[in-house]
Structure formats: structure tokens, C-alpha cells
Design a protein that fits this description.
The complex is a heterotrimer of chains A (about 80), B (about 375) and C (about 475). Chain A has about 80 residues and is mainly beta. Chain A has one helix and seven strands, in the order ββαβββββ. In chain A, about 10% of the residues lie in helices and about 30% in strands. Chain A has a five-stranded mixed beta sheet, covered by helices on one side. In chain A, strands 3-4 form a two-stranded antiparallel ribbon. Chain A is globular. The two termini of chain B are about 35 Å apart. Chain B is built from nine helices and 20 strands. Chain B has two domains: about 180 residues, FAD/NAD(P)-binding domain (3-Layer(bba) Sandwich); about 160 residues, D-Amino Acid Oxidase, Chain A, domain 2 (2-Layer Sandwich), CATH 3.30.9.10. In chain B, a hairpin with a 2-residue loop joins strand 11 and strand 12. In chain B, helix 1 runs parallel beside helix 5 and helix 2 packs across helix 9. With about 475 residues, chain C is α/β, with parallel strands linked by helices. The longest helix of chain C has 20 residues. The chains are: A mainly beta (about 80), B alpha+beta (about 375), C alpha/beta (about 475). At the B-C interface, helix 5, strand 14, helix 8 and strand 18 of B face helix 10, strand 22 and helix 12 of C. The structure holds flavin-adenine dinucleotide (2 copies) and FE2/S2 (inorganic) cluster. One flavin-adenine dinucleotide (FAD) binds next to helix 1, strand 14, strand 18 and helix 9 of chain B. The site of FE2/S2 (inorganic) cluster has 14 residues of chain A, from loops. Chain A: It comes from Nonomuraea cavernae. Chain A: This is Proline dehydrogenase. Chain A: InterPro entries: 2Fe-2S-bd_N (IPR042204), 2Fe-2S_ferredoxin-like_sf (IPR036010).
Chain lengths: ~80, ~375, ~475
């Protein structure tokens, strides 16, 4: 795996340095929210950064939502926001 | 001095207090903890008519469901969640399906509505159900309440005084007669006392020198992540649930009970075992509950469990609650021992006791629920037909 | 060690949960004394919070890092390190059974005779209007982004909260090129001066950060807090208030910024210990921590704890407690081993000094009750279930008397995070200190995984 690669967010490319989490890569690319809450439709992204708050849930490659701050980005990962 | 003291601020105590207050009594409710901090806080909140055979408990359930609906209407929106979502009992084999349909036909006479559903029509009710089921029975009257909120709202009646964090330690007597309670915050006298202490109802009875054989029957519930789109619409369970509910076994029994909630989570039960008040989480039990739920709804496979909890159902050997005046201790009434149906049966219990307390004839015969029915000399009576 | 070589389940001597300073020190100490050790951590790399580092080699300037890397390498040779493994429960039959989720989501169980809980802590958050806007991060979260991912959390950043941790966070962000508009300490800041001994011991470190802040012209202000965050879809500005000593608002001003890093100390993660029935005690700030004896042993046979779960005290104390626990576990496993492997008086004295320092810091930076006044009725207290303050107040009116009954009536803490984020605030709003967290499922587990028989760790899985 090379040290720099890309993933996509809703089809848009986002650069990643190897070892970065999906949450960190999105945040660094200026994508600060990637889901909305069930009741109030409020935007959410990173908050605790270490897997505690579950605000950063994200769906990658069609899988059920996972914590973006714990998930290492892999080349070609497709992130879909909701 | 209050007309009535209710021990226990669970859903049953709340319903007793509520109906007594509506009947004009001045009521004080005492709990050693907060509102709904006992088994009510661990219950799922189903108001079921689908899981009972014809008999006194079913009559109580049918009356209670009617009362829950009226209470919810009185409370209005913002009162407590009451969702008449209906129940769906499913059968794995044609033989079980025949028995389910036969049971449903019997309960119709007690006022239970139902529709027998053929195997191929089940997905019309629950699109995500596993294939290969033989059929089921749909019970439109089954409903769900948020039991903690419901209890709190019922206690909101203006003539009820709620005293939390007060522990009952004994009774005040005048001869045989119970005239009030002793608590860790002093004595309180009243014309009548209701023991609505749920799983601890036996301990309260013992303080009054009478015996009630109420035992804890542990149950675990799994709660999933909140789902954006509901995956399960009804309360769905397998026929084995009915058998387990009625069983006397102390060992572990589990059956699949799956339902969605307004909060978006899916609740998964049900386990039953008699292990005292042991709260230790049992991973094998959780695992069995998960396996049964996934077998019923394969789409649940990828859904995550985010918590689990357990509670202790107040279990009586004959699976009937104890409701009524205690002839062994005049002035003392009981409303406890509702096992896995206390939320469903709470309003009827309170309503019937309020009728007794105000000198009216109770709408249902209370004899099957008599507190002294476990006394050795009296036991044969329990088979007597209600008048 | 028991079981047959091959694919039979193995019962190892020790499982360590947590690969931070405490866990790594404990695991290596025990492994060096001949015990079979398995270390589990949910992260992708060892290090925990303090020694968090990027995957692509950049040597961070973290004090003690080189030594930690040597320890981690040695550990890799002498023990089985399972990363990206989330422990969701620990149960007990004849052995302790550690239940975890492997990277693909599959279930793995590890049997052991001894367990070391070294699960660290997480940031303590306080609610305020707008705190759930994207761009508001915990202080630790901003630090983790910087240390672990090389990502600077924003361009124009405000740092706020209480405690000495705000200093390295502010200094780190400024040093990495962000414009840090201020570090706002809600406390008086002078508290530590009353404790001459610890103040001396760490004056150097704090002075270093203070210098770094000054170099980048970052204002450090005490008795100030961020009491509201503003923005449409993202953070655009914060309201900074001047506070009295109880944290009531005296005056406010608005600062435009894109990022806020905010933290009010740390919450030890003790849920696994609580699952096992370990006794807890109230830490200086009233938070429950695992009670341990001089050998880091909890009240439950076979269970030790080290690092933040026994009381917040920073990485040096965590590492030392880990070492002491490792020695104690080894001594317990082989009581006849030579005395050389025992916990020495010197170690115990050092731990005493570090603990006194940790306590002094906590006493110097308490959370004061005035934060409640920052909230409005519509301010979310529970972010997951979106429960505003008004609903919590209503639950209290309805007869809830403690955090648990508030939760039952109004749902705060029932969602994804299981009350980790709002637990402190809800308990305080209910009028009590936070209680030991009851979480039978510590990490979310899919029903499919839970339904299947887990893969037991066997001999062939060990080095
Ligand atoms: C897992 C599980 C699922 C369930 N699901 C359902 C369901 O779907 N539908 C249903 O109908 N039922 C269900 N139940 C059963 C239901 O929860 C109980 O039957 C019901 O809550 C009992 O209510 P209660 O008011 O009698 O008891 P509790 O809610 O336990 O109230 C008794 C109160 O008495 C108080 N008390 C005890 N001793 C003293 C004392 N000495 N002094 C002062 N106060 C005292 C306690 O603090 C407590 O608050 C379930 C139970 C479990 C465990
Ligand atoms: C986000 C954050 C950032 C911090 N940054 C700094 C800093 O830069 N400088 C500083 O001096 N202090 C920092 N701290 C304070 C920190 O608590 C201590 O300095 C130090 O890291 C504590 O060491 P520890 O070994 O006790 O725990 P930690 O270092 O926190 O290690 C605990 C480890 O346990 C793992 N873990 C926890 N639960 C589970 C589970 N259920 N399953 C598997 N693994 C689990 C975690 O992934 C973590 O790696 C930070 C704290 C936080 C919360
Ligand atoms: S940011 Fe909190 S869990 Fe990912």
C-alpha cells in the first residue's frame, strides 16, 4: 500500500495518508459532517475522536454504519453520507 | 391521614393509586427508590391478550387493555407512548399452527380478536420474517406502552402524594388490623394499605405476618441500535413463548420475542430462569436470544446490540397475580405477583381494587387472585369455577 | 498455561485489556517473568492516548516515546498482541473469559487466569447550547487527530474547558500551524500553587507549554469558558464568558472560529470491572474508579487494574501502575519466584508521589456547578437520543430521583454511546455524583456475531 491514496465521499475524491482513519481524512478534507440525527436531522461528524461518542457513524462500501474515527481508510473505500 | 397508602411506585402501585384517587380517595404512595425503579423499569411494556389461555388472567388482560387505551386517551399526546401495534404469533410447523389457531378460537369468546394468517401471507404483516414458517395468528388488540412514563403519569393525579426514597419496614396494627406502615422516615397511618411491591411483595407480606410465595424469575432483554426504518412492526413471537410463560421450570428457557419500538430500537427477549436476584450478565443467554431473533428475522443479522438489561419478574407458583383484601390481615390489600404481565395487567388490578375499597362490587371475580389461596388448607379451592 | 498444543482453547496466564502506557508496561513486565500474555486493544497501533502516533513514521516529540517504542517492540516478541480487537464483555466460569470482536466483526474469546484492566479514560464533556455542531471536538479528540492522524483539527481554533491538559492541546495545535484564538480555563488556575510539592515536580512541563503558547501569541485566560457554540451546519463562532468562581456567567463576548476543542477532565473507563463486580470508590472529583490495593489488585479474585481506571493521574502514573500490576501478577502466578521480581519499596514510593500529584491536579481543577446555568431548556444534554434539558427537568418533576430513573423516563444515556458522553451531566442534573456504569455490552455487537459460537483463542494462535 502506498503512503498516499484516495477514497471517495459520495463519489467525490478525498486524499488519505496511510494509517489515517476515515474520520480524520474526511475532517482534514473539510467534510465535517456526514450524517444527520434521527429526530432533529442535526448534522454530525467527529466529536470525541476515539470511539466513545458514536457521533461519527458512517457507512463504508455499503456496510452498516461504523465509527469513522476507529476505521482505517483503505484505498478505494466508498463513503456514503446520509 | 390518607385514606390509602400504596407501597410501591411501579406500574401496578401507580395504577392502584390512580384509580383510587379517581374514586375520590386521598392516596399516599411510598417507594424506597424512585418512580418505576423496580421491575417496571426493566419491562418491555407489552399489553398482551395474545399469550393467555381462557381463564381469569385472560379476563383480567382483556379488561386491562381496554383501560390502558382509555388512560392513554385521557392523558392525550405527550402523556405516555401507547402504541396499538398488534401481536403476531408465528408457528414453525403445521401442527403448531393448528394448535395456535385452536387456542385463538377459544379466546375469541373472551373478547380477543384475531386473524389466522397462512404461511404465505405472513410477509404481508412482517416483510422481513424468515421464510418457511407454517403460519401465524395476528392479534390486533396487543399494544405497547412506555411503562416507566406511564407509571409516572398515572401518579400525576392531583390527589396522590408521592414519597420516594422511603422504605417500608413494618406495619402499625390495632389488634389484627393493619392501620398503617412503619418506614425509615417514621410511621404513617391510613385506612387501608396496598402492597404493590412487585417481586418484593412477599417480603412486604411477611412484615405483616402473612405469607405470599412470590419469587424472582429473571429475564434478559437485548436492545439494538436505533434503526432509521422500522424492520419489525408488530410484537412477533414464536409459539414456544406461550409454553415458556406457563412453565414452572427453574432452569433457563428462552423463546424468540422480537419487536420494534417508537425509539427505533428493536427489543429482543425473552428468557426465563429462577436464579434469585443475580444480575450477572450471562453471555450464553444473550447468545441464545440473538440466535433465535436472527432465525426469525434474518435481516437482524447485521444489526448491532448496544445494550442489554435484566429484570426479575414477580413469579407466583400458579402464574396468577395476587389481587384483593387479605383476610389474614384486615386493612391490608395486595396487588403484586404479576410475573411477566404486570404492565399489561396494572390498570385492571388498580381499577378492581378501587372498586373494592369504595365498597362497590368488582367488575371481575377476584377469587382466583385471592391472597390466601396458597394456604395449604385452602389450596383445592383454586380450581373452583368463578361465579 | 493449560490445554493441549493445537486448536484446543488455551487458558493463558494474563489478558491485558488496553495498549496504552499502563497496559503495555503491565503486559511486558508479566511476559518478561515468563507468563503467557495476550494484550487486546481496539486501536490500530499500541500507544493508547498518550503515546498515540501515526502509522507513517514521523517521530513525535512526545516525552518517553522512544522508550515506549522499545517496550512495544519487545512486547510484540514476548506476548500476543491483538490490535483492532474490541472487548465487549468479560465473564467467568472456571477461568475468566474475555469476549472480543475481531477486525472483521467475528467473535473471539480468550480464556485467562488473570486479567489486567488498563482501559484508560475518555474526555469528560459538559453540555452547552450548540455543543453538537460539527467543528466542536473534545480536547482529547483534537489531540488524537493531531497525534494519530497528523490532522490539525481546524484553522481558527478555540481551546476551552478545565485542567492542565488544555495546555498541551493548545500548544500542539498552535505548533502545527493552527491559529489558536485562546485557551480558556474555567477554573482559577492558581489552585495548584497551593500544593508546593507537585507544583515543583511538574513546573518544568507546564512552563514549557506556557512558553510555547506565548511564542505563538496564544492568550491563556482563566475563569473563562465557552458557554455557547453558533453556526448553521457547522461551527462559526463561540460565546466566551467570564465566570465567577462557581462558573456562573458574568459577561460574554463572541469569537468567530471554525473549531472548538473542549474538555473538562477525564472519565475513567471502568465498565469491564463493574461487569465483574469489582468494588469502586469515588475519586477526588466524585467519579467512580476501581478500588485497588497496593498491588493494583481489585476486589475480585484474579482481576488487576492500572492506569486511569484506578484514578486519573496521567501517563507516568499509568505506566508505573502497569509495571507494578505486572510484577504483582507474576508474583501471584509463581509465589516462589525469586524476590527480584517483586514490587519494591522504591516503586511504591514513586507511585505514592505520582498519585499525590494526580490528586492535587484534580483538586486544583474541579468542575464547578455553574455550568448548569449555561444550558437552556432546549439544549441537548444527551446527543444520541437528542434529549434536551427540558425533558430531564420534566423527568425530575415526574418522580425521578436519580440518574437511572431520569434515564428510564427521558432516555438520556439509552443511545449509541450508552451514557459515556452525557453520564456526568445527567447525574449532576439529577443531584448525585456519577455512579458506576452498568454496561453489560461494552461495545456494540451484531446479532449475527452474538448468535454464532465464538472462536476461542487456541495454542496455535499464540506465538
Ligand atoms: C425482562 C422483562 C420483560 C417484561 N416484559 C413485560 C411486558 O412486555 N409486559 C408486561 O406486562 N410485563 C412485562 N414484564 C413484567 C413487568 O415488568 C412486571 O410484572 C411489572 O413491572 C411489575 O410491576 P410492579 O409495580 O408490581 O413492580 P415493581 O415495578 O417492581 O414495583 C415495586 C416497587 O416496590 C418498591 N418496594 C419494594 N420493597 C419496598 C419497601 N420495603 N418499601 C418501599 N418500597 C418498596 C420497589 O422499589 C419497586 O419500585 C417484564 C419483566 C421483565 C423482567
Ligand atoms: C483522547 C485523549 C487524548 C489524550 N492525550 C493526552 C496527551 O496528549 N498527553 C497526555 O499527557 N495525556 C493525554 N491524555 C490523558 C491519558 O488518559 C493519559 O495520559 C494516558 O494515556 C493514560 O494511560 P492509560 O494506559 O491509563 O490509558 P490509555 O492510554 O487511554 O490506554 C487505554 C487503551 O485501552 C483501550 N481500550 C479501552 N477499552 C477497550 C476495550 N473495551 N477493548 C479494547 N481496548 C480498549 C484503548 O483503545 C486505549 O488504547 C489523553 C486522554 C484522552 C482521552
Ligand atoms: S468521534 Fe466519537 S466515536 Fe468517532
Amino acid at each position: 500500500m502506498s503512503d498516499a491514496f484516495q477514497i471517495t465521499v459520495d463519489g467525490r475524491p478525498v486524499p488519505v495518508t496511510r494509517g489515517q482513519t476515515i474520520g480524520a481524512a474526511l475532517h482534514a478534507a473539510g467534510v465535517r459532517s456526514w450524517r444527520t440525527t434521527r429526530l432533529g436531522g442535526r448534522p454530525r461528524g467527529l466529536f470525541c475522536g476515539i470511539g466513545i461518542c458514536f457521533d461519527c457513524l458512517v457507512s463504508v462500501n455499503g456496510r452498516p454504519p461504523e465509527r469513522a474515527c476507529l476505521l482505517d481508510a483503505r484505498p478505494g473505500d466508498e463513503v456514503t453520507t446520509s | 391521614m390518607p385514606d390509602l397508602i400504596v407501597i410501591g411506585a411501579g406500574v401496578v402501585g401507580a395504577a392502584c393509586a390512580h384509580y383510587a384517587a379517581r374514586a375520590g380517595l386521598d392516596v399516599t404512595v411510598i417507594d424506597r427508590g424512585p418512580v418505576a425503579g423496580g421491575t417496571t423499569g426493566a419491562g418491555e411494556g407489552n399489553v398482551l391478550v395474545s399469550d393467555k389461555e381462557p381463564g381469569p388472567e385472560l379476563d383480567l388482560a382483556v379488561l386491562s387493555r381496554r383501560l390502558w387505551r382509555a388512560l392513554a386517551e385521557d392523558a392525550g399526546p405527550g402523556g405516555f407512548e401507547y402504541e396499538p401495534k398488534g401481536g403476531l404469533v408465528v408457528a414453525e410447523t403445521p401442527e403448531i399452527q393448528r394448535r395456535l389457531a385452536a387456542l385463538a378460537a377459544l379466546t375469541a369468546a373472551s373478547g380477543v380478536e384475531h386473524t389466522v394468517v397462512a404461511g404465505e401471507d405472513l410477509r404481508g404483516y412482517e416483510p422481513h420474517l424468515a421464510g418457511g414458517l407454517a403460519g401465524g395468528v395476528h392479534y390486533p388488540q396487543d399494544a405497547q406502552v412506555q411503562p416507566m412514563l406511564a407509571a409516572a403519569r398515572l401518579l400525576g393525579h392531583g390527589s396522590i402524594r408521592l414519597r420516594t426514597d422511603v422504605t417500608v419496614t413494618g406495619f402499625t396494627r390495632s389488634g389484627e388490623r393493619v392501620t398503617g406502615v412503619r418506614t425509615d422516615r417514621g410511621d404513617l397511618t391510613g385506612d387501608a394499605v396496598i402492597n404493590a411491591a412487585g417481586t418484593w411483595g412477599g417480603e412486604i407480606a411477611a412484615l405483616a405476618g402473612v405469607e405470599l410465595p412470590i419469587l424472582p424469575r429473571r429475564g434478559f432483554i437485548l436492545v439494538t441500535e436505533p434503526l432509521h426504518r422500522p424492520l419489525v412492526r408488530h410484537k412477533v413471537y414464536t409459539a414456544a413463548y406461550v409454553t415458556n410463560v406457563a412453565s414452572d421450570a427453574a432452569g433457563l428457557e428462552t423463546s424468540a420475542v422480537v419487536e420494534g419500538t417508537p425509539a427505533g430500537t428493536v427489543l429482543i427477549g425473552a428468557s426465563r430462569e429462577r436464579v434469585g436476584f443475580d444480575r450477572t450478565t450471562s453471555v450464553p443467554v444473550l447468545s441464545r436470544l440473538a440466535a433465535q431473533a436472527v432465525a426469525l428475522f434474518p435481516a437482524l443479522r447485521d444489526v448491532r446490540v448496544i445494550r442489554s438489561y435484566c429484570g426479575f419478574r414477580p413469579y407466583c407458583p400458579d402464574h396468577l397475580p395476587v389481587i384483593g383484601p387479605d383476610p389474614r390481615a384486615p386493612g391490608l390489600y395486595h396487588a403484586c405477583g404479576h410475573e411477566g404481565a404486570g404492565i399489561g395487567l396494572a390498570p385492571a388490578s388498580g381499577h378492581l381494587l378501587a372498586q373494592v375499597l369504595t365498597g362497590r362490587r368488582p367488575e371481575l371475580d377476584l377469587r382466583p387472585f385471592r391472597p390466601d389461596r396458597f394456604e395449604p388448607a385452602l389450596r383445592p379451592d383454586r380450581f373452583e369455577e368463578p361465579a | 498455561m493449560s490445554g493441549q498444543p493445537g486448536s484446543d482453547p488455551v487458558t493463558c496466564d494474563v489478558v491485558v485489556v488496553g495498549g496504552g502506557p499502563a497496559g503495555v508496561a503491565g503486559a511486558l513486565t508479566a511476559a518478561r517473568r515468563g507468563l503467557r500474555v495476550v494484550l487486546l486493544d481496539s486501536g490500530a497501533r499500541l500507544g493508547g492516548q498518550y503515546f498515540r502516533h501515526p502509522a507513517v513514521a514521523v517521530r513525535p516529540g512526545t516525552a518517553g516515546f522512544d522508550r515506549f517504542v522499545r517496550q512495544a517492540r519487545a512486547l510484540d516478541r514476548q506476548a500476543r498482541v491483538l490490535l483492532r480487537h474490541q472487548v465487549w464483555a468479560v465473564s467467568r466460569d472456571d477461568d475468566l473469559v474475555v469476549h472480543c470482536l475481531a477486525p472483521g466483526g467475528g467473535a473471539v474469546t480468550v480464556r485467562c487466569r488473570g486479567l489486567l484492566i488498563a482501559t484508560g479514560a475518555h474526555d469528560r464533556a459538559l453540555p452547552f447550547p450548540g455543543w453538537d455542531l460539527p467543528g466542536v471536538l473534545t480536547a482529547g479528540g483534537a489531540q488524537a487527530l493531531l497525534k494519530g492522524d497528523g490532522v490539525v483539527a481546524g484553522r481558527r481554533i478555540v481551546v476551552a474547558g478545565t485542567g492542565p491538559f488544555l495546555l498541551p492541546v493548545g500548544a500542539g495545535l498552535a505548533g502545527a500551524g493552527a491559529r489558536v484564538l485562546g485557551v480558556f480555563e474555567a477554573g482559577g488556575g492558581l489552585g495548584l500553587a497551593r500544593h508546593p510539592l507537585p507544583a515543583l515536580a511538574r513546573a518544568g512541563e507546564a512552563a514549557g507549554y506556557a512558553l510555547a503558547l506565548a511564542r505563538h501569541r496564544v492568550p491563556y485566560r482563566t475563569r473563562r469558558a465557552v458557554v455557547a457554540a453558533h453556526g448553521e451546519r457547522e461551527l462559526e463562532a463561540v460565546t466566551v464568558a467570564r465566570l465567577d468562581r462557581d462558573w456562573n456567567v458574568l459577561a460574554t463576548r463572541r469569537i468567530a472560529c471554525d473549531t472548538l476543542a473542549v474538555g473538562y477532565g477525564f472519565v475513567p473507563q471502568i465498565d469491564l470491572g463493574v461487569q465483574l463486580g469489582c468494588d469502586t470508590r469515588a475519586d477526588v472529583d466524585g467519579s467512580p474508579v476501581l478500588a485497588v490495593d497496593g498491588a493494583q489488585r481489585t476486589s475480585v479474585e484474579g482481576v488487576w487494574a492500572a492506569g486511569e481506571p484506578t484514578g486519573v493521574g496521567g501517563w507516568r502514573l499509568a505506566e508505573l501502575e502497569g509495571r507494578i500490576a505486572g510484577l504483582a501478577i507474576a508474583a501471584h502466578a509463581a509465589p516462589d519466584a525469586p524476590a527480584a521480581g517483586r514490587v519494591t519499596e522504591a516503586l511504591i514510593r514513586r507511585r505514592g508521589r505520582l498519585r499525590a500529584f494526580g490528586r492535587a491536579l484534580q483538586e486544583a481543577y474541579p468542575v464547578r456547578p455553574g455550568w448548569r446555568g449555561w444550558l437552556r431548556d432546549d439544549t441537548l444534554v444527551c446527543r444520541c437520543e437528542e434529549v434536551p434539558l427540558g425533558r430531564i427537568r420534566e423527568a425530575l418533576r415526574l418522580g425521578a430521583t436519580d440518574a437511572r430513573s431520569v434515564k428510564l423516563l427521558a432516555r438520556p444515556g439509552m443511545g449509541w454511546c450508552q451514557g459515556r458522553v452525557c453520564g456526568y451531566a445527567v447525574a449532576r442534573l439529577a443531584g448525585e455524583p456519577p455512579g458506576p456504569p452498568r454496561r453489560p455490552v461494552v461495545q456494540p455487537v451484531s446479532l449475527g456475531t452474538l448468535a454464532e459460537p465464538p472462536h476461542p483463542l487456541s495454542w496455535k494462535d499464540l506465538p
